[in-house]
Batch of 2 targets.
Target 1
Amino acid sequence: MRYLEHADPVITLTAGPVNAYAEVLRGLGRTVLYDYDPAFQLFYEGVVDKAQKAMRLSNKPVILHGEPVLGLEAAAASLITPDDVVLNLASGVYGKGFGYWAKRYSPRLLEIEVPYNEAIDPQAVEAMLKAHPEITVVSVCHHDTPSGTINPIDAIGALVSAHGGYLIVDAVSSFGGMKTHPEDCKADIYVTGPNKCLGAPPGLTMMGVSERAWAKMKANPLAPRASMLSIVDWENAWSRDKPFPFTPSVSEINGLDVALDLYLNEGPEAVWARHALTAKAMRAGVAAMGLSIWAVSDKIASPTTTAVRTPDGVDEKALRQAARARYGVVFSSGRGETLGKLTRIGHMGPTAQPIYAIAALTALGGAMNAAGQKLAIGKGIDAALAVIDADA
């Protein structure tokens, strides 16, 4: 067998960056217009309008010109003040990580942390809010990608809203792949991007900001201004009549325009359905092969990423290397505390199609067999096909 070289074509089934739609890649090749050209200013306003429609917002979203980690750090820097008491909800590596940013801007940090294969219980949030009425800001990661788990942000958001607090939501790898929108969960800052389920390259942040969050940020003298971390500088940049704080990423806006068209034209419900079907087929195959997912329950497993627990005695890094070398399929590792304990298979954007579950099962099963597991790959594929056929 000739093993694949690094430059050879591969099927990227990672948790991000993900494959971009071919149409998006063509969109990136459009003319790079001058940002003060009236044609670009009108075009930019139109892209923001499409993002508003996709995110189902009653006000204009913000686009920051950097991948969504920029938006998450900017949210902490802009909304959180030294007087705030922050409750961070940590069910995984990314949720835990936001707490480090929060503590940079307010020393008063409380946390609910659960094992990284579980989800946050809204009852625990309710109890914490009652025990600590001084809490003013709550932060939560919707889909904690290194664990492949989903938190119930709508229920959490209702509790935070009733408490009078501000809610920051990391929806980077969930928006566009399942039913979630800023106002559904009463988020004050909702951070996502086009580089996951919308099938575009990493390079932009899309952010929903509530009116009360705008007021709080503008009243915060420590909120970044004239900075890459500034949100307030971009409040009105959507308008063709307002200047940009600095040069926007023109090519990335070209790609986002196409990605939003694809999402809206296919229909959000149809997009969510194929993400869910791909994940369901993948998990049926994983179970039939005798493997298990990382999440403690299917109920909290994300439809955009399947995290497969690494069997005892298997070198997870070597497993992924074998999947790439033998089959040309690239998976993701865990991160932080989940590194080496699981393998992540992404179902996002163009690879949220059932055929990719079959490819993933073939590569994962074959690599496991090469590691001495001797799995019944055929049973896994048959189980996945049965799920797909049942949906047809």
Target 2
Amino acid sequence: MTRLLLIGPPGAGKGTQAARLAEAFDVPAVSTGDIFRANLKNGTELGLEAKKFMDAGEYVPDSLTNAIVHDRLQEVDAAGGFLLDGYPRTTEQVHELDRLLLADGTALDAVVQIVADTDEVVARLLKRAAEQGRADDTVEVIRHRMDIYEQQTAPLTEVYGSRGLVFTVDGLGPVDEVTDRILVGLAARGLHAVRPVEAS
């Protein structure tokens, strides 16, 4: 029963690693982005509420994000563990997650922080933007997103770091190598994969 949190800047390959780690530990990857999209698609009450903020170009409030994540973690497939991607993003969300897990008598086992050279990540995101025809992803916009990420993430790593949960992994290099680095780090903390990850 492994409960992980994966954090990392845009373009560091976090989504790819989340999927691979979820496979390795046989737990669902719980992404707030995916949850919002699923709730919107299914027209749930939470989804419709979130849509009001998203349509107005505003951040979905913590209270609603917390409710949506809580709802997802109550599903059967998350009973044996999960991998969180994109939540928590604020210290208030950290405290709410603490409350949710405490109510279930559980806690996070580890926080994997993927780091990557900023210039390398910017170059990677610019390449992806060009391939996908996303003209609005300029150097300035990407660097602004990186700055916001740093501002949001620093308090989280401080909180979780004080609990001895954070370990850092270089996100640059071949996908398989990054996955191996993470698995080695988790194994050192007594968290062992239950199935092999297929080579990319």
